[in-house]
Amino acid sequence: MSPTLLFALSLFTGAGLLFWAQPLIAKILLPFLGGAPAVWNICMLFFQTTLLLGYLYVHMLVRIRWCSDRVKLVVHLLLIAAAGLFLPFSLSLDIIDSALARQAPVVWLLVALPGMVGLPFFIVSTCSPLLQYRFSHVRDPYFLFAASNLGSLTALVLFPFVLEPNLTLGEQGRFWALGYGFVAILVLSCLLLSRRLEAAAAAVQAPQANSGEKVAWKRRLLWLALAFMPSSLMLGVTQYISTDLAAVPLLWVIPLALYLGTFILVFARGQWVPRRRGIGIFPGAVLILTFVYLSGAREPGWFLVPLHLLFFFIASLICHGRLADDRPSSEHLVDYYVWIALGGMAGGIFNGIVAPVLFDSLFEYPLAIAGACFLVPSAVSKIRGFDRRMDLVVPLGICLVAIVLVLATPGMELRAGERVGLVLGVPVSLAYFARHRPVRFGLSIVAVMIGGMFYGGFGDATLYNERNFFGVLRVAESRDSGLRLLYHGNTVHAKQFLEAGRSCEPLAYYHREGPLGKVFEAFEARRLPGRVAGVGLGAGAMVGYSRPGQQWTFYEINPAVVGIAQNREYFTYLDSCAGGTVRVITGDARLSIRNAPDRFYGLIVLDAFSSDSIPMHLVTREAIDLYLSKLAPGGMMAFHISNRSLDLRPVLAGAAKTLGLAGVVCEDREF
Hints:
- By secondary structure, the protein is of the alpha/beta class.
- It folds into 3 domains: 371 residues, MFS general substrate transporter like domains (Growth Hormone, Chain: A, Up-down Bundle), CATH 1.20.1250; 72 residues, no CATH class; 144 residues, Rossmann fold.
- It has 24 helices and 9 strands.
- It has a 5-stranded parallel β-sheet with strand order 7-6-5-8-9. The chain has a 4-stranded antiparallel β-sheet with strand order 1-2-3-4, covered by helices on one side.
- It is globular, with a radius of gyration of 28 Å.
C-alpha cells in the first residue's frame, strides 16, 4: 500500500469512528432525558470540546522541542492503549440513577459523557491533525482533510440507514471497539512510516516558498468566526427541525452531513461546486427564509424543512469556502485546525449553554441567520465614508418601516395572509437592495427581525414564558375566546376556559367528543381498576375525566410543566377538577414507570410531546412491552400520536402485531 493511500485510509477510518460515535452515544443517552432535542446539542458541545482538546494535544506535541520524537510516540501509544480500556461504551448505574438528571440535565450529560466515551473520542480526534502534520512533506496536505470529512460523512449516512436498523446499541458499541483497534494499528503504521517519508521529501523537494509565513491574530479571529457561524447554524437548524418533527438520529444526521459535505467540497482538489454561485443564491435564500420564519409558518413540512437546510448548506459552503481559501502553509496546519475547532466549540457553547440562559425562545437560530450575512464576501471593493454611514442608516430605515406597518395594519381591513405580506414582505423587499454590502445586509436582516418581533407581539397576551433544557413554554390568554392556553414551542398543548363554571371541561385534544372521550367511556364500561397513568402532564386537563375513588398518576419529565400545571394562577385542572387522588412523578416516564407495581393500572395514556414531536423511545416495542407489564388484566393503553409530520400508525401497528395486541385508530377531525 502506498504511503498516501495508507494515510488517507487512516484518516477516513478514524473520522468515520468519530462520527459514528456521535449519534450512537446521543441515542444511548436520549431516553434518560425524555427524548429532548437539547440532548443532541449538548452532546455536540461535548464532542466539539473534546475535538479541540485533541487538536491542542497535537499542537503541544508539535511545539515541544525538549522531548524526542521517540518519547512522544511512546506517550501517544500509551494513551491509545489506556483509551481502549474504556471500550466498549458503558454507562454506570450510579450515573443513570442520579437525581442530577432531573435537577440539572446539562450538568448530568457533561458528567456522563467523559466517563462513557471521553478518552477514546479524544484519541481518535487526534488522528486528523497528527497524521496530516506528519504528511506535510506534500506541498498541499489539505486534500487529506477532504478524505477525513468523507469518512465522517460515510459514517453519518450509514448510521440511520444501515447500522441503527440492523444492530442493537450494544452490538454497535462492540463493533466500534473493534474499529478503534483497527485505527490504532493504522495510526501506528503511519507514524512509523513518517520518518522515511520526511527523509525522502527532504532529498527531492526544495523548501516551500511560504515556509516563513506569519499568521496575524486578525486572521486567526476570522478563522474563528468562519468556523463559529456554521456550527451555530447547524445546532440551531437541528433543534428547530427536531422540535417540530422528532428527536431522532436521522434528523440530527442530515444537518451534520450537510455541514461536513461543505468541508469536503471546499477542500477537495478541484472546485466541484462554484462558490460564486452559492454567494449569488445566498441573498434570496436568506430573505425567503426570514420571511417564512417570521410569518410563523409551520406547514407544509416538505417545503419548510428543505428550505431551512438549503440556507444552512449555502451559508456553510460560503464560510467554509473562505476558510479553505485562507488556509496557511503546512507549518501552521495544526494552529489552523485548533482555531477551526475553537470556533466550532464556541458555536456549541453559545447554542447549548449561553443561549438558553440569555433567551426565553430559540432566538439563537434567527440570530445566526442574520450573523451569516456579515461573513459573505463583499461585492464592493472600495468602501467610502458615505457607504459606512449608509450601512447604519438603511437598516434603521427598514426597522422604522417595519414598526410603522405593524402599528398601522390593525386598523386596516386585511385578511391574515395580506397582513403578513404587508408587514413582513415590504421590509424584506427593502432589505434585498442592501445585498451587495455584507454589513448593511446583515443589519437589514436584523432590522426585519426586530419588526417581526413587534408583529409577533400582537397575538394572545403572554402571562408566562420559560425556557429550559426541555424546550420553550408559554402560558397565554385569549380574552376574545375566553381561553387560557399552554404552548410548548410552536404547538398548543392545553386549553382551559376562563369562566369558572366551565373551567373543568377538558378541551383541545382531550374534549369529550374526541378520541380520548371514547377511551374513557370504554374504560368506565369495562369496570377496570380505577388506577390511571398519564405519560405527559400538560396542564392536567385529563383529570376532568377522573371519578371519586380513582388514583391518577402523571409522569412528567419537565419540571417547568409541573410548575405551570400546579400553579392555579395559570391552570386549575389539578387544583379544582380532580375527582380522585392525583400524584405527579417528575422524571422520564419509561424509567419512572418501572417502579410501579406490575399489573397495577387499569388505563395508561401516553400523551408525551415536545412541541409537536413525540419522544420516539416511548413508542418502541420494548417500551410498550414495559407498559403491558404494568397493566391489570384486560387493561387499556391509549397513544396520542397526532402531529404535523410523522405518521406513527404503522409503528404502533407493527408493535401491536409483534406483541399480539389488538388496536383501534380514532381520528379527531377537529385537529
